[in-house]
Amino acid sequence: MVGIGLAAYLARFLLPTSLAADLPKTIESAACNKAPTIDGVLGEEEWNEAATIKFDMPMIQVKPAAVKEKRACELRVMNSANALYIALRVPNAAVHKSLEPLELDMASLAFCQGKDVAKGDLRKVLAVGMYVDKHVVEPGKDEDDPRHAGRGAVAYDKGYYTFEWAVPLNDLRAKPGDEFRFNIAFFDCYRDNLKDTQVGGMFGADLNKATAWGTLRLADKVTFTKDPEGRATMGGSSGAAAAFTMAWFRPDLYRRVLSYSGTYVDQQSPMNPQSPHGAWEYHEHLIRMSDAKPLRVWLEVGEKDNGWDKDEQSYHNWVLANDRMAAALKEKKYHYRYVFASGAGHVDGKAVNQTLPEAMLWLWQGYPIK
Fold first, then answer.
1. pLDDT in the model for residue 14
2. Looking at the structure, do residues 201 and 270 belong to the same domain, yes or no?
3. Which domain holds residue 299?
4. Cα(318)–Cα(307) distance, rounded to whole angstroms?
5. What is the rounded CA–CA span in Å between residue 254 and residue 77?
6. What is the SS3 string spanning 278-331?
7. pLDDT of the residue at 6
8. Nearest CA to 336 among 280, 258, 260, 266?
9. pLDDT tens digits, one per residue of 128-176
């Protein structure tokens, strides 16, 4: 895969590179209330909340070695309560997007959580038609990250590349107000033999050593919407039943529910005479006997989930309970999606990893409500 060990490979040939003299060492991210569309198009309305930094990126040619012209670039940075958004605009005279033979323009966004690059640190590689999540295995070596947690897109227009990234803060093990080291390297016409390849970086082109990198400080004064359409609940097992309960009884606060192996069974203690079968009451009576609420619900259950071989009279069969939940939601014409995971168990990690990204995309369809 293009980009594996790329920084280490180039380091054998690179001349010492200078940092952009007009860049502050600490980049202050701006708080944003609306996520931009990650499509490589720098829409002003999408990025108007971002901090904007203009700088000249020093470039060198790798082979034959030569110092090249600086390029006038623009960086935009902003974050919400759960994601970091970065856009980089770079001038480039031509487009290189060939994989065979390899001639590729690309940018690599790199993060470092400690004093220097270490195992687990993230790389986000972008080229025309290609986005790859990576993590460091050891300095000088990285590999594809199976979580595929980030998003990225790049487009070329009128002599400029625009690279856009969206990185979940969970992926960075960070929260609003935190700071960490980062760098972005740009490769103009990367070839296997490095002939005529040019490279530059915001804080130098070395992605193996973070000592010269800049610091990115996340905005901490982020706001949360009070719009119930913009607030979701999520859980697994009893947490899923609790998540559904939050939305069912308070749709004025929450209207989207994501449920893994929901405990919609009789597991209450002590017994409540108003709901003698516990959470089984949702599909037995409550959903069917109530007017439809403005909820959007995503459900999953494993084929071998808890109590899968028990009969209905036990009120303790998770598979049957979730089947009945889906049927009740369908009967009342709710917006719902039901996933039956073949061979999976209770809150099965493999099932979660395979379905969560698509589940989140489905759950947030229609938001913001126009």
1. 47
2. no
3. 228-363
4. 6
5. 29
6. HHHHHHHHHHHHCCCCCCEEEEEEECCCCCCCCCHHHCCCHHHHHHHHHHHHHH
7. 54
8. 258
9. 989 998 889 887 788 888 777 789 999 999 999 999 999 999 889 999 9
**What is the pairing mode between strands 30-31 and 160-168?**
unpaired
Question: 10 in helix, strand or coil?
Answer: helix
* DSSP letters spanning 191-235: -TT-BT-EEEEBTBS-SS--TT-EEEE----------GGG-EEEE
| Biggest distance spanned by C-alpha atoms of the chain | 82
**Closest Cα partner for 212 from 18, 11, 14?**
18
Nearest to 88 by CA among 201, 211, 218: 201
Query: At CA 145, angle to CA 202 and CA 141, rounded to 5?
Result: 60
| Single residue among 217, 238, 253 that ends a domain in this structure | 217
Q: Which of 192, 217, 242 is the last residue of a domain?
A: 217
The confidence band for 1, taking pLDDT boundaries of 50, 70 and 90, is: very low
Taking residue 289's Cβ as centre, other Cβ atoms within 10 Å add up to 10
Are 174 and 196 within 8 A, CB to CB?
Answer: no
The answer to whether residue 369 scores a pLDDT higher than 60 is no
**289 Rama class: left (phi>0) / alpha (psi -120 to 50) / beta:** alpha
Are both 24 and 53 inside the same structural domain?
yes
Q: Are both 174 and 243 inside the same structural domain? A: no
Structurally, the chain folds into a number of domains equal to: 2
Count of CA atoms in the C-beta half-sphere (13 A) of 246: 21
Residue 291 makes CB contacts below 8 A (sequence gap 6+) with none
How far is Cα 253 from Cα 288, in angstroms, rounded to an integer?
22
**pTM of the predicted protein model:** 0.70
Which residue carries 């007009």 as its tokens?
Answer: 22
What's the residue count for the chain? 370
